[in-house]
Amino acid sequence: MKKTMVLYPGLSVSHFLPMMKLADELVEHGYAVTVALIDDPLQKQIAFTATVDRVISSKPSICFHRLPRVDHLPAVTTNDGEFYLPGYLDLVRRHNEPLHGFLSSHFRGGIQALVVDMMSVEALDIAERLKVPGYLFHPSNASLFAFFLQIPSICAESKRSFSELGDTPLEIPGLPPMPASHFIDNRPEEPPESEVYKAVMDLVRRYTNKCSNGFLVNTVDSLEARVVNTLRHARRQGGRALPPFYCVGPLVNKAGERGERPERHECLAWLDRQPDRTVVFLCFGSTGIGNHSTEQLREIAVGLEKSGHRFLWVVRAPVVSDDPDRPDLDALLPAGFLERTSGQGAVVKQWAPQVDVLHHRATGAFVTHCGWNSVLEGITAGVPMLCWPLHSEQKMNKVLMVEEMGIAVEMVGWQQGLVTAEEVEAKVRLVMESEAGVELRARVTAHKEAAAVAWTDVGSSRAAFTEFLSNADSRQTS
């Protein structure tokens, strides 16, 4: 009889998809996998709901179970549509009992382990009650993992809340110095007694208090060698409150996988007609937070046109648009832009198959918001990147990509809220035409090759994954 692992993913595409790749690896290793889902309470998360439905239909070997809805759902977004952490944590907390009921009634013979999303750390209480090993899945990188472990000591030493630190330079062991504001979105208007601040601090404390079994981190040893080695050294030296961690990345889709959408997108046919490495691909994530203003869209358009380089651009309407799901490109972009650039570029509304585009022979550069999934997809495709962070830890990722990994350049102006057409043109030319662009490609190719080795029989991620399975086995039987 197969051993069973239960996975409990988060409620966003960027957290859900990497955990589903983890599920694939577990199935490949002979485990039965069940995924417990919180029935989407947000309704407006069209991209997330559609992604979940597509994944369920494409993975018949995995069992998916939707937990019953709870009454009086808390708000997980603010009135202006921004993510509200205290509401999200309350939502997950209210599903603890339905999760417990499902696990205790359906798995009387026991489960090998419960793996929960990093934002669902309170669900580890259920693993403890059922006396099964519980692990936390961290879909981002080891650098953010290291930062989370340091937040309490940073605030204690500075005697200020994290939101009050603003652009104060921070030195996290294993990371390059960078402003506090680059790690997470911190708002000066949120004092230490605010609900958001308390929720962040409580979440971080629970990471170390509740997750003694370990973390699964979506990264590759060689990609973040400095911080991974620093963390391992600290753990060997008996570092306080440092749980075991397993670097099991890159957990990303492969080119040609039709789980995202079954049909071949028309933009790939357009790419088929372009020469090798000549197209700049622009895409800014799967959520509405990545929508630019009309002014910014027009600056991008002018810069692309003046660069003279081919481009494939995924455009979403500004959030204030009457219908952001069906943007009117003629109204959003400069007059005549689409006609003038019809032989130079292609503009796609809302969505494109990012992995397939990045792996296409015609793609030569990637303008990205620096979400970790997108960074890994760019690396595994061997495509140099242009960084345009928008929110959360994307600013930290930008520093890592530019300064540590040497695989990207920064689009200057994002901090001021507007990247000019001149900057777009200059950076596109730099990556596509200059010797600096050649060097970027060489470095990202080296990381691509290292990532490809990570899941082979002699790879670091395979070894970490095997160690995790062994750890779960030993804890389950002890």
TrEMBL record:
Keywords: Glycosyltransferase, Transferase
Membrane spanning residue stretches: none
Record keyword Transferase present: yes
Lineage, highest ranks first: Eukaryota, Viridiplantae, Streptophyta, Embryophyta, Tracheophyta
EC number of this enzyme: 2.4.1.-
Lineage: superkingdom: Eukaryota
UniProt similarity note: Belongs to the UDP-glycosyltransferase family.
Name of the molecule in the record: Glycosyltransferase
One function term, GO molecular function aspect: glycosyltransferase activity
Entry keyword Cell membrane: no
Database matches in PANTHER family: GLYCOSYLTRANSFERASE, OS01G0869400 PROTEIN
